[in-house]
Amino acid sequence: MIALLLRDLRLALRAGGGFGLGLAFFLLVAVLVPLGVGPEPATLARIAPGILWVGALLACLLSLDRIFALDHEDGSLDLLATAPIPLEGVVAVKAAAHWIVTGLPLTLVSPLLGLLMNLPPDGYPLLLASLAIGTPALSVIGTFGAALTVGLKRGGLLLSLLVLPLYVPTLVFGAEAVRRGAAGMDVATPFLLLGGITAGVAALLPFASAAAVRINLR
Amino acid sequence: MSIWEYANPKKFMETSSIALPWAAAGALLCLLVGLVWGFFFTPDDYKQGSTVKIIYLHVPSALMAINAWLMMLVASLIWLVRRHHVSALAAKAAGPVGLTFTLVALVTGAVWGQPMWGTWWAWDPRLTSFLILALFYLGYIALWQAIENPDTAADLTSVLCIVGSVFAVLSRYAVNFWNQGLHQGASLSLDKEENVADVFYFPLLVCIGGFVLLFLTLVLLRTRTEIRVRRVQALLARERMA
Amino acid sequence: MDLTVTDLACARGGVTVLERVNFRLAAGAALILRGPNGIGKTTLLRTVAGLQPAVAGDVSMAPESVAYAAHADGLKATLTVAENLAFWAAIYGTDEVSRAMERMNLAALADRQAQNLSAGQKRRLGLARLLVTGRPLWVLDEPTVSLDVASVALFGTVVREHLASGGSALMATHIDLGLAEAEVLDLTPCRARSPASAGPGTDDDPFAGVTA
């Protein structure tokens, strides 16, 4: 399974595009929003947590269809399904690779974008922490959506429609943690809930995703 | 006789053709009685005036919007465990009906909210949850539409329905956590003091009965259609192969 | 343990295409599936490989014994020949990469990216993957597509060596690999009967009998 993770990471690096695209999109959101809502620092500071979380979520969404589509096209998914590693493991590794390629870089550059959005100083560690805890859930849930649509030719839009409602709890708790923190309120509860969602989906959703892949390969 | 006998398509078609007119007539009768009673023979609310009367559409449709999803969940589980095709098609049939009830609940809610709260829409937890529920329905219906092979579609939508149910509950709690709302409490809970008065309560019950029967009628009708479509498709596939 | 297929029926796109397929494949033997296009050779191979469930009947073999090679080779364009093979070797936990490259005449191409290979070379790489799996039962779907005469002969030799070392091979192919000892199974008689000729009671459509 480590071999699969390394292969996916190596492919992401070599293919180009896939790696930087999400980041570029995230940056664009942070640039476009102030242009759209106006430059008042107070307004930007108030909406920064939400905008950055929504931006990270959409950036994550961009690359979801690549999780299985390439492997499905070239036949590797068939071969992986007959390989001696369980499909649940394959799916979990794919989600992990997706997080390392998108979620992790998004988390790491988020303070920089917080700067652009005039995020209050207290918000930075919370933004970093909430994205670090929350984005793995985005990748795991997204992998489930990708598994459902793996055989479809124009699955991209459908994938977004399927995945976005599933992202609601993660988004709410993630953005809420930063928002409360920036307002000087207690953040333990949203963080615990966010962590609970990530742990829960990471433990359970790979089984549903693997079932969906198996159904799609028939 | 086992209940599973009704899962046989032929048996289902026979039984449903008998049940369908009764369900339809019952729905019509209950809705007529309930709505006429509610609209014309109940007093105006001392606070809300005559606007309260939209409750006879709003509450039953909201109730059925959730119950339709529950029915889809049960039908999906039955399909995954017992592979009864009728069950999968009943789930498919319930999707658009549930979406319609959700939209009716949202629209009637907006119409009611405008005079009461002074706004058509507020990001109240209940309203927001219903909007999210509508998105879940849309995704479910879109997945059915997108997949050609009917058994694959049934399998995948069932998996989505189960996972979606968990996330729908999570979303409900998340949204509650996120905003305390304007919406009044439950209208019908049995232990609360804020229950609606009896004079509104009984016509409301009749209306709910009417909506349940209406749901049953629509789902039976749509399931029968889906079964016929599947039979036709199977025959066409055979013709192409022969 | 041998591969035994009993009364197997398999479906493509929800329609049963093959039924009453019976054969037995012992260690050291090869079986070639024949039949017109569209009869369901690929479907049968996928069913044996465990990628799709059988409609009826039974496939029995030792667990984890199948190495499946489909039309698509499962190659990653941006990985080199050696990296592609090393990945599958790691997945299957074997250490056969350099030997596999040698036997499929790929050693000179080891550091070339798969996207820069010709169609025939890609195919050879796809088949070399079988060697790094270390699995006894090869399930091959048209393995010789885009191979030249020399490569077909080379692959024939590889299959023969595999059989000699106790392996077995089930393949759908129209080209003679030079496997004189291979048995041939014609699937034409196994074509699923149309319901009109099959008579009442044999309809596998779950909605049969629905009239109005």
TrEMBL record, chain A:
Chief location: membrane
Compartments in which it is found: Cell inner membrane
Pfam families reported for this sequence: CcmB
This protein's record includes keyword Heme: no
Any Gene Ontology biological process: cytochrome complex assembly
Transmembrane segments: 12-37, 43-64, 85-106, 126-150, 157-175, 187-213
Keyword annotations from UniProtKB, A to Z: Cell inner membrane, Cell membrane, Cytochrome c-type biogenesis, Membrane, Transmembrane, Transmembrane helix, Transport
Entry GO MF terms: heme transmembrane transporter activity
InterPro entries: Cyt_c_biogenesis_CcmB (IPR003544), Cyt_c_CcmB_bac (IPR026031)
Gene Ontology CC: one annotated term: plasma membrane
Superkingdom classification of source: Bacteria
Membrane topology summary: Multi-pass membrane protein
UniProt family annotation: Belongs to the CcmB/CycW/HelB family.
Purpose of the protein: Required for the export of heme to the periplasm for the biogenesis of c-type cytochromes.
Protein's UniProt name: Heme exporter protein B
From TrEMBL, chain B:
InterPro entries given in the database record: Cyt_c_assembly, Cyt_c_biogenesis_CcmC, Cyt_c_biogenesis_CcsA/CcmC
Alphabetical keyword list: Cell inner membrane, Cell membrane, Cytochrome c-type biogenesis, Membrane, Transmembrane, Transmembrane helix, Transport
Pfam family, one: Cytochrom_C_asm
Protein's recorded name: Heme exporter protein C
Domain Cytochrome c assembly protein: 6-183
Family: Belongs to the CcmC/CycZ/HelC family.
Entry's localization field: Cell inner membrane; Membrane
Keyword Nucleus belongs to the record: no
Highest rank taxon of the organism: Bacteria
Lipid bilayer topology: Multi-pass membrane protein
Biological role: Required for the export of heme to the periplasm for the biogenesis of c-type cytochromes.
Any single GO CC term annotated in Swiss-Prot or TrEMBL for this entry: plasma membrane
Single GO MF annotation: heme transmembrane transporter activity
From TrEMBL, chain C:
Region named Disordered: 191-212
PROSITE patterns, A to Z: ABC_TRANSPORTER_1 (PS00211), ABC_TRANSPORTER_2 (PS50893)
GO MF annotation terms: ATP binding; ATP hydrolysis activity; transmembrane transporter activity
Gene3D superfamilies in UniProt: P-loop containing nucleotide triphosphate hydrolases
Domain ABC transporter: 3-212
One GO term (biological process): cytochrome complex assembly
UniProt cross-references to InterPro entries, sorted A to Z: AAA+_ATPase, ABC_transporter-like_ATP-bd, ABC_transporter-like_CS, ABC_transptr_haem_export_CcmA, P-loop_NTPase
Keywords of this entry: ATP-binding, Cytochrome c-type biogenesis, Membrane, Nucleotide-binding, Translocase, Transport
Pfam families: ABC_tran
NCBIfam families: ccmA
Protein name, per record: Heme exporter protein A
Organism: Cereibacter azotoformans
